[in-house]
């Protein structure tokens, strides 16, 4: 036990001694990492909601929704790693607990299992929320001339706006 506590300061000291010099200031990297942390929290919350709905959907659209939800949560799961790794590349720790996500996320989760059409409505709203979070992060990314983060945000916007459109089409 004592050994573990001694290694923590060494890790912090080792990390502190290696300065990041990628052409983005410490202040800008911190601001971008904060915005990407919000994106990660929204993305994880949406992932979890989509997976939950995949498991629990019922009704005449079962097969369509079950398959669509699986495609969407699988894509979202893979995106989580990309977002977290960008935060790490900027020199910050990525949030990784439900507590952190609940503080950072703009998405409200349902308290029970909704009906299929309500699931669709909630996922439209969730995808739109992730898109808004990604769009809001562009201010910091553009100011810092951070092309890798801009590319990540553009891809996430494209996917979430497309998902919202496809889900919205089921309600018309």
From TrEMBL:
<dbReference type="Pfam" id="PF00210">
    <property type="entry name" value="Ferritin"/>
</dbReference>
<dbReference type="InterPro" id="IPR008331">
    <property type="entry name" value="Ferritin_DPS_dom"/>
</dbReference>
<comment type="similarity">
    <text>Belongs to the Dps family.</text>
</comment>
<protein>
    <submittedName>
        <fullName>DNA starvation/stationary phase protection protein</fullName>
    </submittedName>
</protein>
<feature type="domain" description="Ferritin/DPS">
    <location>
        <begin position="34"/>
        <end position="172"/>
    </location>
</feature>
<dbReference type="GO" id="GO:0016722">
    <property type="term" value="F:oxidoreductase activity, acting on metal ions"/>
</dbReference>
<dbReference type="GO" id="GO:0008199">
    <property type="term" value="F:ferric iron binding"/>
</dbReference>
<dbReference type="InterPro" id="IPR009078">
    <property type="entry name" value="Ferritin-like_SF"/>
</dbReference>
<dbReference type="InterPro" id="IPR002177">
    <property type="entry name" value="DPS_DNA-bd"/>
</dbReference>
<dbReference type="InterPro" id="IPR012347">
    <property type="entry name" value="Ferritin-like"/>
</dbReference>
<dbReference type="InterPro" id="IPR023188">
    <property type="entry name" value="DPS_DNA-bd_CS"/>
</dbReference>
